[in-house]
Amino acid sequence: MTLNRRNLLKAGVAAAALPLLGSRAFAQSEPLKVGFMLIGTVNDNGWNFGHATGAKFMKDTLGDLVAEPTIVENVPEGPDCERVLRELAQSGHKLIFATSFGYGDYVIKVAEQFPDVRFEHATGYQRSDNVATYNARFHEGRAVCGTIAGHMSKTGKAGYIGSFPIPEVVMGINAFVLAARKVNPDFTITPVYISTWNDPAKEADTARAMIDQGIDVIAQHTDGPAALQVAEERGIVGGFGQGADMSAFAPKAQLTSIIDHWGPHYVNAAQAVIDGTWETGDRWPGLKEGEVQIGPYGESVPADVVAAAEAVKNGQIDGSFNIFTGPINDHTGAEKVPAGVIMTDAELLSMDWYVEGVIPPA
Amino acid sequence: MMQFRLEKRREPSKVMLYATPVAAVVLTMIVGAIIFSAIGYDGVGAVREIFLTPLTNAFKWQDLGVKAAPLIIVGVGLSIAYRANVWNIGAEGQYIMGGLAATWVALATHGMGGWWTLPVMMLAGVAGGAAYAAIPALLRTRLNVNEILTSLMLTYASVQLIYYLVRAPWKDPMGMGFPQTRRFASEALLPNILPGTIVHAGVPIAVIVALVAWFIMSRSVFGYQMRVVGAAPHAARYGGFSENKTIWLALLVSGALAGLAGMLEVAGPFQRMVPGFPTNYGFTAIIVAFLGRLNPLGVIFAGIVMAITFVGGEVAQTTIGLSSSATGVFQAMMLFFLLAGDILVRYRLKRVAPQGEARA
Lengths: 362, 360
Description:
The structure holds 2 protein chains of 2 kinds.
Chain A: H1 5-27, E1 34-37, H2 47-62, E2 70-72, H3 79-90, E3 95-98, H4 104-113, E4 118-122, E5 131-134, H5 138-152, E6 157-162, H6 167-183, E7 188-193, H7 200-212, E8 217-220, H8 226-234, E9 238-243, E10 254-260, H9 263-275, E11 282-283, E12 292-294, H10 303-318, E13 328-329, E14 335-337, H11 345-349
Parallel strand pairs in A: 1-2, 1-3, 3-4, 4-5, 5-11, 6-7, 6-8, 8-9, 9-10
Antiparallel strand pairs in A: 10-12, 13-14
Helix pairs in contact in A: 2-9, 3-4, 5-6, 5-10, 7-8
Chain B: E1 3-8, H1 14-38, H2 43-56, H3 61-83, H4 91-108, H5 117-143, H6 147-167, H7 202-219, H8 221-231, H9 233-238, H10 243-270, H11 281-291, H12 296-320, H13 325-341, H14 343-346, E2 347-352, H15 355-359
Antiparallel strand pairs in B: 1-2
Helix pairs in contact in B: 1-2, 1-13, 2-12, 3-7, 3-8, 3-10, 3-11, 3-12, 4-5, 4-6, 4-10, 4-11, 5-6, 5-10, 7-8, 7-12, 11-12, 12-13
């Protein structure tokens, strides 16, 4: 199109007609705009990748009912996330998923300003009329990983790269070592907190330091595959994928992986908003519901270990096995949970103590 | 064929001095649009969303102000130090120490604060930043240790100090074990100056700081000393200006302002100390200082331009799905063009006859 007066005029008329068209289109059924706020990038092949995959699952399942999901990456846990939340709400997103713990304060704050927008905060604990929380029982997967570690570790020493000592992370460490000690009563685990969810360099450095100290199995509660890559390079017994299958990065070292399958939850939440039935609350599904899945086992895992891991997995699915069943002692050896008693969800969600076998960080 | 040669100017060009930052921004937009189009994105859309939407959408102005304020305050301090050829790279650390000092006041007076809480926090922030900058000053003046290295390395130490404090002594008793302090009491929070927005008192403070700094730098003996020591150290020595004193002043002033920015951030947008407090304002402010031509008034504009790229980068993510790394690419391109353009301040392009023709 050449730029002349007639064409400009045409464009002007067309532009003037646009608002009319817009309001007419909106009056029909406008697809629901869903926003996702991530702390890292969608190609971290872990936590954020898991959420992005869930977003895609939602779009594929609901089709034209939802618009192409909006994903904002690399949003720090601070005032910057408040701006992104407002940006999403102002640009017409009626359902917004905030997928990192540290967004909590800001989700509550922005949600007050946008009462007609629904917010869901992953791994958080603060709720309001339009803010729900959701999480997955990762610790069930940790119990499976811990069982494998208990069988396979030669030194009986595991390392655990954590972000922050919040209950979600502490719970995972405890589930891991409880499961490992059922196999090897002398098993110990050393957590190291690196104060970030995603810093591949730091994760790799930590993994190297752990291996130098005689640790031969590494688990991590951070977002990417960096620790596994170090495990592969150094040829230790192995590690576990977190959030997604990371075998592409560590084909030998990945013993198995905990896969987060957020898709069904995102479908349900979006459908509820469309139907007008969305309600606040806390959702915490796990292996049984398929939100937490165990990935393929590595080649180095012997058949009997696979069988033991599968038994732990299936026991948690049919409800016959719960890793947080007493007797459980804390790291000093004092009894915290009497024999036969199962810890409640409320107790798990405020867990701030380590079980026996954890060498607490200074 | 035409050939050009760089020829040194007798004096730095005033026109180029002010034209190159503008040209850097414009070139960034043009080249950015071309590059992103070439790799298959909507390049023009990216430039529009990153550089224009934050300005045209009135909802975004509050964000620009809030994001620009700390950049301007830290940038003004750095521009003063850099004028004197004192290379404080550790503003991020001084910003953190200012924030921590203010947090200490807020936590120590929790539940018994009053109108005096914020002024005391402000003093603590300024003192914290200045004290942390005093370490490189001392090392430089006494032991002749390069301040670039010491100030930068101290930044990492200050980050670890946050982690330590929020994990143990300052941990929020109600925070579910999350390493963060409790939320500050209302007396320790910056007032909001425009109801219905997020604009806090730090925004006008940033403008006032820049204006005062401009006045001091251009009108006072202190400003003259900074400029003369930086531009002509030998002449300054003859003139009786002490080099050590200048180093001290430059580091203390830039550290104090970084500390002030830290206090305003923690008492404003953050409302508590968290491990995510360091957000690279101290490093970004280095670009701001240079983009602003080390002139406090220029820093105001540079701070706003950088804020636009941050806010616009998020807009581009939500509207056209551009990756967050794009913002970094645009910011880096801007600094690159600015530094490359700087050569035109001291040199000019002169057309010369090609050698072939000259021989013929």
